[in-house]
UniProtKB/TrEMBL annotation:
Residues 122-317 form the 3-octaprenyl-4-hydroxybenzoate carboxy-lyase-like Rift-related domain. The lineage of its organism: Bacteria, Bacillati, Bacillota, Clostridia, Eubacteriales. GO terms for molecular function: 4-hydroxy-3-polyprenylbenzoate decarboxylase activity. NCBIfam families: mena_SCO4490 (TIGR03701), UbiD family decarboxylase (TIGR00148). GO terms for biological process: ubiquinone biosynthetic process. It comes from Ruminiclostridium papyrosolvens DSM 2782. Belongs to the UbiD family. Pfam families: UbiD, UbiD_C, UbiD_N. This is UbiD family decarboxylase.
Length: 481
């Protein structure tokens, strides 16, 4: 099912009793975070706060905070439905040859039907136009006591490459400095930062539009680790099986989702000095340190007459963003398999907050195969940030953490099976002595081959004979169980 907007999705959540309306007045400073944190960790519903102190707009949170709601948001019975088609989509959408490739592959012609629709009229997101905008009107959260201020936590930030004219859509937190300026948290390795650097090289003003309150698939697509040449709006259309309607911003040449709740229009002056942003209670469970980032200037705010402000809170896992990370894990496994067919399955444990740990099961065929996979993963896009890679044999389910731990604790020799690799790290990593760079760890927990220097006979695992298991199964009730 393709939702036309966030409101239609809220209606679906209400229909299935997966959302709770909070009618008591609540404070966007800390109070809502504490409520949401307790609810998500107890497996509770999405929350719609109808009366937020000092704002007329309702606030929606914990929207994606369960597998059931995540599946509903993406319009699938389970994530694997969409995952099996992702590889075809990425392959078809390569570079500028997209149309040519699609026409050459009849099974992919349907993808041409999900190109975004640029409407010639105003959208619902522009029902109200405010040329004297004030961010103080929005119920923007201060999430944690040590935060540097209030942060917009679910913004879809849209920019345009000055060289190619191609738009980019990403999700970058925005610290509110005052009524009309915020930080723009573009990490060193992010596409938004790359576009900023291009604009800075030409000394220009960089137009930016920020959509808040898009339909759930567009929100997810802004977080997806797509190859640089893939348009996130096109990807969203593919996932929802229906094009995303776009309209031109009122004051700049950027197209935005027509049915979004809010659009923040403005610019980043690439000649302006960077400004201190943070600290921020982050998805690692620690505060990310304050640092210098570009400044976004708000010049116009448009919004729907029935606008709802969506937000999320990150912190010690499990939190709502963990479920979005699990969607990425499932959706992009087929893409990883296309590049590395020996990979059987993978798991990003919630405690690893996505970048810190991945467990991979492989069909091992030759000496050093596990180490080859480690280095391949570190060479794959945003997977370069992965601090720890654990490789197990195909017989091991990487989602069974107890079995994985058993294999790691028993199958490794420290000198032979530990790989230390210097390389890029996520900007939020606090453990490395240097920013953006440090040491990553690989653990080969596979059965060792003689060619890998193992001179003894690898022992068999203890298993019961099949005839005895069958006998006991047949007599189980007879034993009194």
């Amino acid at each position: 099912m393709a939702y036309s907007d966030l409101h239609e999705f809220i209606g679906k959540l209400e229909e299935k009793a997966l959302i709770k309306r909070i009618k008591s007045e609540t404070d966007a400073e800390l109070e809502i975070t504490e409520i949401a944190d307790r609810v998500v960790k107890s497996g509770g519903p999405a929350l719609l706060f109808e009366r937020v102190k000092n704002s007329k707009f309702p606030l929606l949170i914990n929207t994606f905070g369960s597998y059931e709601r995540l599946n509903l948001a993406l319009g699938v019975k389970n994530i694997e439905e969409a995952a099996v088609k992702i590889g075809d989509f990425i392959d078809a959408a390569n570079y500028a040859g997209f149309i040519k490739t699609v026409k050459a592959v009849p099974s992919l012609i349907q993808l041409t039907s999900v190109f975004p629709l640029k409407l010639p009229t105003k959208g619902k997101c522009q029902q109200i136009i405010d040329y004297s905008p004030d961010l103080g009107k929005l119920p923007i959260l201060k999430c944690w006591p040590g935060d540097g201020g209030r942060f917009i936590t679910l913004p879809v930030v849209i920019t345009k490459d000055p060289e190619t004219g191609i738009q980019n859509m990403g999700m970058y937190r925005m610290q509110v400095y005052d009524a009309q300026t915020t930080g723009m948290h573009w990490h060193l390795h992010k596409d938004g930062r790359s576009i900023y650097d291009k604009c800075r090289n030409t000394g220009g003003i960089m137009p930016v539009s920020v959509a808040i309150g898009c339909d759930p698939v567009v929100i997810y697509s802004a977080t997806a680790p797509l190859p640089q040449y893939i348009d996130e709006i096109l990807f969203a259309g593919f996932l929802r099986k229906k094009p995303v309607a776009l309209v031109k911003s009122i004051t700049n040449d950027i197209y935005v989702p027509a049915n979004a709740d809010f659009i923040l229009e403005g610019y980043v002056d690439t000649k302006e000095d960077l400004r201190m942003e943070g600290p921020f209670g982050d998805h690692t469970g620690y505060y990310s340190l304050a640092d210098m980032y570009p400044v976004f200037h708000l010049t116009c705010m448009t919004y729907r007459e029935d606008a709802v402000y969506p937000a999320t809170v990150v912190g010690k896992p499990p939190m709502e963003d963990c479920y979005l990370g699990k969607a990425t894990e499932k959706l992009f496994l087929p893409l990883l398999r296309i590049q590395f067919p020996e990979i059987i399955d993978m798991n990003f444990p919630l405690e690893g907050v996505f970048h810190n740990c991945v467990i991979v099961s492989i069909k091992k065929r030759f000496p050093g195969h596990a180490k080859k996979v480690m280095n391949s993963i570190w060479g794959s896009g945003q997977m370069m940030y992965t601090k720890m890679i654990v490789v197990v044999d195909e017989s091991v389910n990487p989602h069974d953490l107890s079995t994985v731990a058993w294999k790691v604790f028993n199958n490794i020799d420290g000198r032979r099976d530990i790989v230390l690799s210097d390389g890029p790290l996520d900007a939020l990593d606090h453990a490395s002595d240097q920013r953006h760079y440090g040491c990553r760890l690989g653990i080969d927990a596979t059965v060792k081959l003689p060619e890998e220097g193992y001179s003894r006979t690898w022992p068999d695992e203890i298993t019961m004979s099949e005839d005895i298991k069958t006998l006991v199964t047949r007599r189980w009730k007879e034993y009194g169980f």
